[in-house]
Write a structure and sequence with these properties.
By secondary structure, this protein is mostly beta strands. It contains 3 helices and 26 strands. It starts with a helix and ends with a strand. Residues 1-43 have low confidence and may be disordered.
Length: 387
């Protein structure tokens, strides 16, 4: 990537600031590997109706996700290290990072560990970090500084972790982050507010924008979207807004799945448009929108074959793949939907009990090189779908 030498030099100059804050707080320019585009300069690209999921005919096991020291299990969050991380650390390009939701006794929401492993078959997990602040980790994202953020439903926070395994910051807001669930990191060009972690809350159904580059140097929490349905389920049966994905460039869209209403929603221009509380309010059926920025919200898909989706990923061609956690026939379906809402394919990826798919991430630069990695909770491992 052409920007990496420049970013590496800038990062070297800003090392002390990053070590103190854990992210790019106080830095007057967003330096991530992807940038938010000027929405008025380009036209949204056309949807691609080529199904990649249909091309992925082989499944293989990458490795166990069980923590080798304390036995934590039931993997939820999953990210892929696309670039060689800046600075020193244990994470390498091509690694998978996964967090465990359960403890050794399989108590739901009691896990406190994050693991990493190569994305090749026959891999074994190595602990990246263990801490009580990671209790009930539900999702993982990674930013342009190679800082992994774990969103933790049990600990009611989001925690930043450097590639060295060091916890660098903890984001908490007792009123807005009651049951943090899904998450996405959006890099912006403006300062402030700079980069931001966006977190969905499974208690309130809100999407909370956390600006990290504010003028004060303190994170700013704003519930920019409200009204997503939640089921107030116990750990292991929680449904609500999750599977957050952001696609920048011409697309400039935030995607959100809701496992209660079985909907997939697209929000245009989130970074530049959503600043105020309740900028968008989702209707009770999950399919209508109100509020000052309702024009930026669109229902992409609703209903079968979506059934309790929690996780998602964006494929290289712009299609989305969602992972179901419910199915009347006991299947574990991945569902592929184009960016215009067209249903393209669905595939059963585990013949065990329904509810096995948690954490999905796609890699590749073209249709033919795409791979989909996913956490399989029936077997406590990471698997890959490939051509």
């Amino acid at each position: 990537m052409r920007l990496r030498p420049i970013l590496a030099f800038l990062l070297l100059l800003l090392t002390s600031a990053c070590d103190t804050t854990g992210t790019n707080q106080g830095i007057p320019l967003a330096l991530g590997r992807t940038a938010h585009s000027n929405r008025s300069a380009k036209v949204e690209p056309s949807a691609d109706h080529t199904s990649i999921l249909k091309m992925l005919k082989t499944q293989a096991v990458i490795g166990s996700t069980v923590d080798p020291a304390n036995g934590d299990q039931n993997p939820y969050g999953l990210v892929y290290i696309k670039y060689k991380p800046f600075g020193k650390g244990v994470l390498k390009k091509g690694d998978l990072v996964v967090c465990n939701f359960n403890d050794q006794g399989n108590v739901q929401g009691n896990g406190t560990t994050v693991e990493y492993m190569p994305s090749t078959t026959g891999s074994s997990p190595t602990r990246l970090v263990q801490d009580s602040s990671l209790k009930g980790c539900a999702s993982l994202v990674i930013n342009g500084f190679d800082e992994v953020f774990a969103t933790n439903s049990g600990a009611k926070n989001a925690v930043g972790i450097f590639p060295s395994g060091k916890i660098t910051q903890t984001l908490q807001n007792s009123k807005l982050m009651v049951e943090p669930w899904g998450s996405v990191y959006i890099t912006g060009i403006g300062y402030p507010p700079g980069d931001g972690l966006w977190v969905s809350d499974a208690d309130s159904g809100k999407i909370v924008r956390i600006d990290l580059g504010t003028a004060s140097g303190k994170p700013k929490y704003t519930p920019v979207i409200s009204g997503f349905a939640v089921n107030h389920g116990k750990p292991g049966s929680i449904l609500g807004p999750s599977g957050l994905q952001y696609v920048g460039g011409n697309t400039d869209t935030l995607y959100i799945a809701d496992g209660v209403t079985n909907t997939l929603v697209a929000i245009r221009h989130p970074y530049s448009e959503l600043f105020q509380a309740n900028a968008i309010a989702v209707g009770s059926n999950g399919m209508t929108f109100s509020g000052p920025k309702a024009k930026d919200a669109k229902l992409l898909f609703h209903g079968y074959p979506l059934d309790g989706p929690i996780s998602s990923t964006v494929l290289p061609n712009g299609n989305l793949v969602l992972g179901n956690t419910l199915n009347k026939n006991g299947k574990n379906l991945m569902v592929e939907i184009a960016s215009d809402g067209t249903l393209l394919a669905y595939k059963n990826v585990d013949n065990g009990p329904a509810g096995a798919i948690f954490g999905i991430v796609a890699t590749g630069a073209s249709d033919s090189t795409t791979k989909i990695y996913f956490n399989d909770d029936n077997n406590n491992n990471v698997r890959v779908l490939q051509p």
